[in-house]
Amino acid sequence: MTITVTKQEFATRLDELYALALGGSEVVIEDGSTASLRLTARPPTITKRTPGLLAGRIRMSEDFDAPLKLVDDEYLSPSVTPNLSRRTQLRNHYDY
User: Fold this and answer.
1) What separation, in Å, do the N-terminal and C-terminal C-alpha atoms of the chain show?
2) pTM above 0.85, yes or no
3) DSSP alpha helices (H): ranges in the chain?
4) Cα–Cα distance between 35 and 42 in angstroms, integer?
5) How confident is the prediction along the chain (96 residues), in pLDDT tens digits per residue?
6) Do residues 67 and 54 make contact, with C-beta atoms less than 8 angstroms apart?
7) Of 30, 25, 26, nearest to 7 (Cα)?
8) Are strands 2-6 and 34-39 parallel, antiparallel or unpaired?
């Protein structure tokens, strides 16, 4: 079902016309004598996941799960900062 309204009527009945459009009706908004806007409900889009779609396109480096070396071991040696925890040493190094 198509419902034709003016801009002023659309502004005053927005909630009602929105509900009608969601229910399957088509709302045409006219500016003067020409239709300037059509409001309809968009059908739901269901995308089915396709496993393996990107197979071979994505790769991971060989050392992906290797331990990270954040700073020089020499800088954080116990002789330089003997009373600080590792976390505090890293904070001081990166000036957080």
Assistant:
1) 63
2) no
3) 7-12, 14-22, 86-94
4) 19
5) 888 898 889 899 999 999 999 888 899 999 888 878 888 888 888 888 889 888 888 888 888 888 876 655 555 555 554 566 777 777 776 665
6) no
7) 30
8) unpaired
